[in-house]
Description:
The protein is mainly α. The chain has ten helices and no strands. The protein has one domain (30-251).
Amino acid sequence: MDDSNSAHLIPLQDESGKQGGERPKEPWSEHTVKSIVYAGLDAIVTCFSLISSISSVHYSSVDVLVLGFANLVANGISMGFADFISTGTKKDAIEEERLVTEWDVNNQGRQQQMELMQRYQQLGMSLEDATTVVNVFSKYKDILIDEKMTTQKGMQSPNNEEKAWQNGVVTLAAFLAFGCAPLLPFVVLIPFTWSERVKFLGACVVSALALALLGIAKARIAGRSYAFSTAVTLLNGAIAAASAYLIGWLLRDVAGLED
């Protein structure tokens, strides 16, 4: 930064005692990356849980593939459409809320300034500093509106670059791509073995590896511990799959199925 532009800036209080050490890594914030990771996690857990329930009643690999892919496509379309709808609805809601805030600032300016000052004081500002900040923001109406949206309503201005249809397509593609992981052993192992148990164990291994990789990606997004995030992700998948397997096994006799 140019020294002439920063000459009148007040140093932060803790700059005088700067702490050493490596700067923490910034988490991934791109919405597309988040959609890929979370759709992938959901797809793997959902598909593997279905495979577990099918395997518990000793259906063939053909049954697993037919039901697995049918469920995968149906859920993928549902999730993609849901992401499309939710993204568009969120943007519409923020835009409507911004119109309300803009009206408040234009018609109740003094009251809005006082509310913003009180909010800054609650955050630790002195009355003098809070007054100065609000007076500066009041010279720039759009900035004041955005600040009120963020500070008082917890909303960011709508991102015009974010496309609802694009989020839906990304979610659908990620769901289909990662959801295929648990099904791969039932296709790849066909030339090598007829054992359904071996194929199911292969699905367990592939699903665990895929969940571990997405758990690491999830930790990268949230800026959390890789080990903890991976363990939680694997535990989530294990509990879901074990529950599906147990339910299928318990209801097998009720449905009149035989080994």
